[in-house]
Amino acid sequence: MSTHSTGPAPYPRAEVSPPSGELFPHKHLLGIWGLDPTAIKHLLDTADGYAEQNRQAKKSTDKCEGLTQINLFFENSTRTLMSFEIAGKRLGMEVTSMSTGTSSIKKGETLLDTAATLNAMRPDVLVMRHADSGAVKLLSEKMDCAVINAGDGRSEHPTQALLDALTIRRRKGRIHGQTIVISGDVAHSRVARSNIYLLNAMGARVRLVAPSTLLPKDVDRLGVEICHRMEEGLEGADVVMMLRLQQERMQGAFLPSLREYYQFWGLTHEKLKYAKEDVLVMHPGPMNRGVEISSDVADDLDRSAIEEQVEMGVAVRMACLDILTRGLREEDGQ
Ligand code: ASP
């Protein structure tokens, strides 16, 4: 196992809008990179409250009544899009969703023209997913409203990392000091990158377990341990996050065969024996059962937190929408 020190990461810091002194002094949520532990904790504490509210019969409030949320998705999504819609509605917002199939992007409109068009409709929050790393930041520079990154290329997926952190904190009581293994296709995963930033910021010990072809080029700068064998990598793990093989982002041969991949890298009960007895198994979804994870492990209610991750996704997205629109509501005296 090798250890790599933290170095400058190649991605831009989240925008900080003055005045500071607030718990979350940012206009947008473009990534975890650039958020300090206080801001992360504030998001998680707020989301914890929403997680409790979402377990009540009455789940909605009128907190954000009169505000408009647009979800703009240029890549497919089930969990993220649905949970942003539900989150906005539970806060009383007007929510509209648009995907590439129905937008003028198909007619050749540039991203910046789309930004100008949407900006003219005066939304209060724009939630965006795009296949290109950096596209959400580019668009945020043209928008007057708050922008939330719902996943951009291989770069970041901040709300996924926050919902993962909330799940860990609720199950394990804390993030600090936990040994967290992230295993699988790290190279193509924005989930892994956002999780690495967040878990490092909150004092966890992060270990990547993957074949070298599925590690990102800048892995030396991420401040993580690296391991190439599951049996060794799972040793002492409190949490293991499995990642989907993102074949849509692969060009060329990264792997032998899916069967061989499962044999060496797929999470099975056999391999889980190397982790701590109360290890928590996570996966951001969608899962390739029988490729990166066995069905028995995914469905093992004693170990798997996969459904809870989806539940926490709504709470985290409510917290993000709430916090990023707070300034607007304060201006209006709400
Ligand atoms: N749903 C996550 C994402 O959008 C993970 C995945 O697709 O594998 O990045």
List the helices and strands and how they pair.
Layout: E1 2-3, H1 37-53, E2 68-73, H2 79-90, E3 94-99, H3 111-120, E4 125-130, H4 135-140, E5 146-152, H5 158-172, E6 179-183, H6 190-201, E7 205-209, E8 225-227, H7 230-233, E9 239-242, H8 258-265, H9 269-272, E10 280-282, H10 295-298, H11 306-331
Parallel strand pairs: 2-3, 2-4, 4-5, 6-7, 6-9, 7-8, 9-10
Antiparallel strand pairs: 1-8
Helix pairs in contact: 1-5, 1-11, 2-11, 5-6, 5-11
Description:
Helices cover about 35% and strands about 15% of the residues. By secondary structure, the chain is of the alpha/beta class. Strand 2, helix 2 (about 80-90) and strand 3 (about 95-100) form a beta-alpha-beta unit. The chain starts with a strand and ends with a helix. Residues about 5-20 have low confidence and may be disordered. Bound molecules: aspartic acid (ASP).
Brief overview:
This protein has 334 residues and is α/β, with parallel strands linked by helices.
Key phrases:
globular; four-stranded parallel sheet; 334 residues; binds aspartic acid
